Amino acid sequence: MLSDTHPNAVWLADLYRGGAAISADPGLSEDEKIQRLHQHTVEVMEKMSPDMVIHTGGVRLAATGGMDFMRRYMKRRAGLADASVEPVQFDQILADDHYGVVHGTFRTSRGDWTWTRVGMGAWRFKDGLAVEHWELSDGPTWDEFFLAGDPEPFTGSAQEFWTRGV
Length: 166
Hints:
InterPro entries: NTF2-like_dom_sf (IPR032710)
Distance between the termini: 40 Å
Structural class: alpha+beta
Protein name: SnoaL-like domain-containing protein
Number of helices: 5
Largest sheet: 6 strands, mixed
Shape: globular
Radius of gyration: 16 Å
Number of strands: 6
Organism: Lentzea rhizosphaerae
Mean pLDDT: 94
């Protein structure tokens, strides 16, 4: 049964809420935030399988890939926005031995465009590790936002879009 106290739910809460708390801490300098966010990332990655698979948001930009793709995708996604995917609030974080869900409000911005939305992340676990993640959001708006952030017109595959230049 999914619960908010299962170890996988606790890990998901730390993954999402921990990074958000560091980013929002007004007592930290930018350098301290970067250092703490890096350490936080290292710690949460320990629970991700080296064979982790991610299914990105979007329709035109929906792509699936492994850990190398995920790292490149996260870097490219951050480069196309001022604030890539900031958690605003969480309604529920539930998990069991096999699956987890995160339901909340997220914000992405670039210049004058701030896109705030309700979204979900779904996770699959195996042998205590996160092995698969799905980003669930408004796919057409996802595509519109990230394609508009690319300085050059793009006609290739979603995989090529997310790995271009990174």
